[in-house]
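Sequence of diguanylate cyclase (Pseudoalteromonas haloplanktis).
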Amino acid sequence: MDIAAIDSVKVLRENLLKWVCFCFGILASIFTYFNLFVNDFYPLGVLEGIFAVYCFYTFHYARTRKIHTWQPLVLCLCITLLVTLGTYLAAMKNGLFVWSFTLPVLYYLLLGCKHGFYLSLLLACVQTSVFISKPSLAPFSDLNLSLNMSFSYVGIWVIAHIFEASRAQFAQRLENLALYDPLTKTGNRLAMNHYFEVELENKTNLFTMLLDLDYFKKVNDQFGHDVGDQVLVKVASILKEVVNKGRVFRVGGEEFALFIPNSSQQESYQLAEKIRVTLQDCVINVGDREIRLTASIGLAAYRNNDTLKQQLKATDKQLYQAKKGGRNNVSAEQIHYSTNLEQVS
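Predicted 3D structure, token representation.
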């Protein structure tokens, strides 16, 4: 299971940020030298020098540690400030305004659609104000420059937005295909692995269940697999409804894994009993058929430093005990609580 592939967009953006910082750090250093020692343009030169230092720091940071969400946003805001300030302070013949055309693409690549749209809109408004405030746009014709700038910028902006929106849509569809069971819409084994290894940062007071539908093969044999599939969909719906603070994953034909974080032994055991009784009392209607099911559930607490494989092995051991005890049963490690459901109903 390749967990990193699930976060491929994040990884690509982090890698892009790293090398964008490196390139901009070199460019900003060159511009700093020219503005300080050739053009005698000290305010912009000092700002570009500070920006170069920030770029090289972020580049080094990205090589050794994980990027924070605010870092690409700060980079984009800094570049926006330099471009707009440079356009305002410098003569039009210096051509600093040309950098405006590159920024929408950078915004969308580093930040996505939402932030890309708002920053592109912000840049358009600020640059328009800068152009209006200038007494002259010489050596360019005011009308020609305004029209060409407007159409070119909007064109690049629209293309960047459409591309990123389409990419995000397809990435979401691929993620759904990779992470969700197509029948029950619960998570699959890869999603479970990702949840345990990446999303679930705090595993303290984590409890896991393995639920197996008793004699489910008889449903398929008697009514057919189409009916069996509809029964699985209904069971998954019940599980997701009952387990309102945990996650549900389908890990086998009629086997589900449930992760209950921030719980206690008593709460998790009572929840397992609630699931068992709910399924026992539920009548699943498929066409003119009424189908009743029961489930065996194994429950285990997370032990510090256990891997997912070890955790599931401990839970599966309890599931075996539940089946051995006559099925339609909950088996848990060293838990002997009353199954009074009034406390959790």
